Amino acid sequence: MHIPKSSDVAKSYERIKPFIHHTPVFKSTDLNNKVGTNVWLKCENFQKVGAFKFRGACNAVLPLISKLANNGVATHSSGNHGQAIAKAAQIKGIPAYIVMPENAPRIKIEAVKNYGAEIVFCEPTQLAREKTLEKVIQQTKAYFVHPYNDPNVVLGQSSAAWEFLHEIPELELIITPIGGGGLLSGSILAAEAFHALNNLPLCKVTAAEPEQANDAYRSMQSGSIQSLTDKQIMSPTIADGLRTTIGNIPFHIMRRTHTEIICVSEESIVKAMRYIWERFNMIIEASCAVPIAALLENKITPTFKNIGVIITGGNVDLDHLPWNSPQ
Amino acid sequence: MHIPKSSDVAKSYERIKPFIHHTPVFKSTDLNNKVGTNVWLKCENFQKVGAFKFRGACNAVLPLISKLANNGVATHSSGNHGQAIAKAAQIKGIPAYIVMPENAPRIKIEAVKNYGAEIVFCEPTQLAREKTLEKVIQQTKAYFVHPYNDPNVVLGQSSAAWEFLHEIPELELIITPIGGGGLLSGSILAAEAFHALNNLPLCKVTAAEPEQANDAYRSMQSGSIQSLTDKQIMSPTIADGLRTTIGNIPFHIMRRTHTEIICVSEESIVKAMRYIWERFNMIIEASCAVPIAALLENKITPTFKNIGVIITGGNVDLDHLPWNSPQ
What is the architecture of the domain spanning B6-51+150-311? Predict the structure, then answer.
């Protein structure tokens, strides 16, 4: 297992910088008043492909040597990572094969197609994804880019917090959602790298996840990676990007830094999502509403004066909004 | 009639600059490909109060001398201008009285209340608005800030195009929606001011409006200000911000510069609105989708290499989205 290092954060950023958007940071008086402290949102929903995942995909795909890249790249994804790999492969000029669950949102399927990738559908389970991907790789000899358990992906994701800290150096806490752990562990590395470079206190990094997919919380408690329970699989969280199991690379970094995991209810996620839509006029996925829910529910220690939240993505099926359909 | 001058654009901007957001400019490869040219969006939906109207309100309210300001300010508005005046008055520390049609979107009513203004409801007609406002002003002696037919409001609105041109100096055309004409005429002044200051060709400014509220088009054709037809009042456009009649100050500037008005269908407005939501992950009102509709329907001369669109606002009632209710 190759664990990425904070000393590689700056180098990765310089590599992908020409290809990614430097996304804006937003704040609002109303949110600050509600939380009782300054809250800054790093808007990765305005990143290319509409999610931070493009950062990791670029950092994994672009530096591939011809021998590995020639047969293309492959991955499995419920959406954002798939789009990200498809677009990164398009930039590099190599084929991309994306395994997607057949119930993936229409808009994500269309976007992957638009970037010229080949889609292979599978049943919506982790096992079916992995089996189907295995077959695709056997047939095509494509290079597999894991959505989060890949050192270069983790380093690519670190660039969001890296930009964030350069823009708001007074951040004392960054909160990210946690699915596989790529963004979270990347953000931890970015905070360490920023701390090493500047004479500023280390910014803490905390993760938020749905109670209904609290595998990261249980993993940190038990010290070994846990999966969703049968009940959590049968009654899945609305935060569809956070249903995945943590990768062992992110988990290693989380364990090393004793990362705190905050769990929030489904109701508070929908409420926080709608709040951001209405107050910030921007579209965010349910998954990115999870840290906002933690803030609005006062689940964060109130001593932080400047809190940053990474808004992870905005690819939403507008025909199925949580406040227009029965919960 | 006091007509604002392009030589006052820079001064107005410096006055309101500390109070407004410098909003981001977005673009997307997909939109560029669809239109066949570079399209830049100036995102005033991320302005304070969620709309460009805050610029005009600041420039009208903040410099008021005590004698005029002491009794507060008053206006009528279906929403965004009301919020803007309420917030500007809050900053200045004076009362605000906002006359609103009783069918105004809930979210706009709530926002006006949150800024501490007093709301007076009226029937949803231009006449009822004006009569009710008259009464309010008689009772309170408040200073009336017209939503668009006010030199300082027009100059305040000019700051959006002013920032836009400084960020993208290669813009050859700016398209705005037209309701009362404040943003359009302000943008014309900004383009003239920028042209006077820099050795660059004059950026053209064009307006787009719904066919179903084509009063600006008919006004320019006939040379005198026209109202909506009875049919257009009975079957109102979805672009609720554009149902107003042009003010004579904006009309004077439009006539002087022979402003072109492009008309688009209701169907194309809804399509363009949804397109921006899905591709840019941002919430825009139907009114701001009107210039995008003109672009997507290829109603713009294809010789422009760099086109700017001012995205005017993002205050939408999420319970009543046009693609979730029968058209």
Answer: 3-Layer(aba) Sandwich (3.40)
